[in-house]
Prior knowledge:
This protein has 380 residues and is α/β, with parallel strands linked by helices. The protein has two domains: 15-66, no CATH class; 67-378, Ribonucleoside hydrolase-like (Inosine-uridine Nucleoside N-ribohydrolase, Chain A, Alpha-Beta Complex). The chain is 36% helix and 22% strand. The protein contains 14 helices and 15 strands. It has helices at 2-17, 51-58, 78-88, 107-120, 144-147, 169-178, 194-202, 236-240, 242-249, 260-263, 272-280, 284-300, 306-315, 366-378, and strands at 19-20, 23-32, 35-44, 47-48, 68-74, 93-100, 128-130, 185-189, 210-216, 255-258, 270-271, 302-303, 320-329, 340-343, 358-364. A nine-stranded mixed beta sheet has the order 7-6-5-8-9-10-15-13-14, sandwiched between helices. A four-stranded antiparallel beta sheet has the order 1-2-3-4. The longest helix has 17 residues, at 284-300.
Amino acid sequence: MLRKTYLRRRLLQGIRDNRCGGRRQFLYRTAIQDRITVHQILVSDGRAADKESYEIILGRGSGSKKPTRVIIDQDGGIDDALALILALRSPELEVTAITAVSGNVTVEQATLNGLRVVDLLNRGDVPVARGLGNPLVRDAVRATSFHGKNGLGDSSLPRSRIPPAEKNAIDTISDELAISKRRDLTIICTGPLTNIAALLTGFPESAKIIKELVIMGGAYEVTEYGIGNVTPVAEFNIYADPEAAKIVFESRVPLTAIGLDVTTIPKNQLTLTDYADIRKRKARVTTFAATILNKNIHKHRIFALHDPMTVATKIKPSLFEYASYKVQVETRGEITAGMTVADRRESPPEGKTPDKRMKICKSVDSRGFKRLFLDRLTGA
Length: 380
C-alpha cells in the first residue's frame, strides 16, 4: 500500500514538473519479477493520451493487475509489424522478446523487420532473435505476393540500427521460460509454428511451463468466414508448416486460436477510411504504418488485421468470445494439407478424436477491437 501511494505521488509530481514542447511527459517504474519496466506516456492538455494507460498507472480499472509477460513469434509481414507496434505500445503487456520464423518472408527478412519496429519505437531493450529458416519437413512457401518482397509492402525503409540477439529464437524462448518463477509466460504466434514445434520437441519440459500459446492460424468453420485463404480449406500459417502445427496442437500446452473465422469478417478489417485517418497523423509510427499499408490497402480496399487481433486478445480479453473444440491438423492430403478440422459434433465417438480441447475465437466486439488498435497505433 505504501509503495502504491509513493508511486502515485511520484507520478503526479512528474506530471506537474515535466513539460516538453507543450506536452507533459512522465515516467513511471514498476517492478515485475525483479525487472524494471519503464513505461512512457505523453499527456496533453491535462489528459492522458491513452486513458487506459493512465488508469493502469493509478491502479484503477482493468489495468490494476500486472502486465502479461509475452514473447511474440512472428514472420515479418505487414500485419506482423502492426501487431508488434500494438504490443509494444500496450502497457498491459510486457514483451520480453520477439522471435522470427520463416513464413511470409525468409527468416532473415522477418528478423530485420522485427528490428525495424523495435527501432521505430525506441525499444532496443526488447531482443529480436532469429529462428528456423525452413519448415520441419516441407519446402518453404512465401506470401510475398501479398506482403511484398521485403514483407513490408515493398516500402523503402531504412535498416534498423539495432543488431539481432546473439541467441537464436529457441534458446531465447527457453531462457525466458527458465527464469519464470511460475507458469506466467504466454507466447503469441503470428506466423507458422515451426519455432514452437522445435521448442516442444527439443525441450519437452517447456510444455509444462508455458502458460498459453495464442496463435493466429487456422480456419475452423465456426463462422461463415472460416474457410481457407491459401487453399480452399487451409490458412497460410498452418499450411506453411502443417507438421509443426500438428505437434503444437497435440501438445499439452493450453492453446487459443484466432482464425480466419473472425479476422476476415469485413467489419473487423481496416478500411480506406481508417487508412486515411492513420495517414493524416504525421507521427513517426503512423507514417511507418501508412507506408507499409499503402500498396496493399489501395489494391484490395480493405486489410485484414489478423496479427493485431491476435495480440489484442491478451490486451483486452473482454472483446472476444470463444468455443472449445477438439482440433486435428491434416498433414497428408493432397488437397487438404494444412486443414484444421474442428470436431463440432455434440457427442463424437470415444477414441476417434483427440482428448485435448482448444479455445477457438468465435466472435469479436468489432468496434471495440478497432478502437483499441487505432488508438494505440495513433496515440489518440
